[in-house]
Amino acid sequence: MGREAEGFTGRTAVVTGGAQGIGAAVVRRLCAEGCRVLIYDKSPEHAAATRDRLRAQGYSVVVATGDVSDQEAVRAAFASVPADWAPPTLLVNCAAGFVFEGLAATADQWHAVLDPTIIGLSLVTQAFQAGLPERDADAAVVNIASISAHVAQDGFLTYNTSKAAVLGFTRCAAQELAPRGIRVNSVSPGTVWNDGNERYHREVLGLDRAAAEAAPEHGGKFLLRRFADPAEVAAPIAFLLSRDASFITGVDLPVDGGYLAV
Ligand SMILES: NC(=O)c1ccc[n+]([C@@H]2O[C@H](COP(=O)([O-])OP(=O)(O)OC[C@H]3O[C@@H](n4cnc5c(N)ncnc54)[C@H](O)[C@@H]3O)[C@@H](O)[C@H]2O)c1
């Protein structure tokens, strides 16, 4: 089984947005590597379903429900880590705001995207580092940016601006936390075939996965001519969290089927 079996044995991770999509795949991957995981998500139903599915496989998963932009709820979530677990030394920030608007965006729309993606990211990272030692923390954070952080996309001004800010946050947090032995990196996924994208392609575009991947403007825009499965994003996140990445901090890793290469 190799390193997947034992990579994070005895360690604790917090995964925001871990109830669904990429976050749920990260939780599953970390559990498979021996980690205990606290899911922090605003959807109690989906979080409980993911927790129950993984517990049925023998994994250690707990849930704290709340919004990442709610400072008190974030503090309570970190305080709820079971006393017999190691303190969290791994953090994956998946929760984000999904608002796709251009210059016409209202202040409310900006809050809807920036509150979770940037303010929430900051509050969760702040609570995480507060529980770590001042030196040699041996800890790692991975944030989720996007290919949208790197390019302009028509009608995506709000989302792309928020994801570009994730790159800036990652670099600055890496600088601030490096003296304490805390690494901070990000990944930039291309389109991931999760429930939301499946629904969008089916209901809005009338395309199933095979048809969407065959279309030049959808799956065809990736060099690999397809979308990613959530597990294909979880694997490089696990690498960046792992001690195999011990000299990597402040970088963004595209996980994009070659989209940003051309
Ligand atoms: N799916 C893609 O194609 C894709 C591509 C690039 C980047 N991303 C990024 O990956 C991350 C995960 O996306 P996904 O597609 O897996 O999403 P998803 O919608 O499948 O899951 C997101 C999870 O985050 C939770 N969440 C949302 N807002 C929250 C908040 N304010 N507080 C707490 N929890 C919250 C939701 O309840 C949900 O469980 C996001 O940062 C997204 O921007 C996704």
From TrEMBL:
Secretion signal span: none
Keyword Oxidoreductase: yes
Residues of the Ketoreductase domain: 11-196
This protein's record includes keyword Repeat: no
Alphabetical UniProt keywords: Oxidoreductase
GO molecular function, one term: oxidoreductase activity, acting on the CH-OH group of donors, NAD or NADP as acceptor
Classification via Pfam families: adh_short_C2 (PF13561)
The family this protein is said to belong to: Belongs to the short-chain dehydrogenases/reductases (SDR) family.
Name of the featured protein: Dihydroanticapsin dehydrogenase
Protein source organism: Umezawaea tangerina
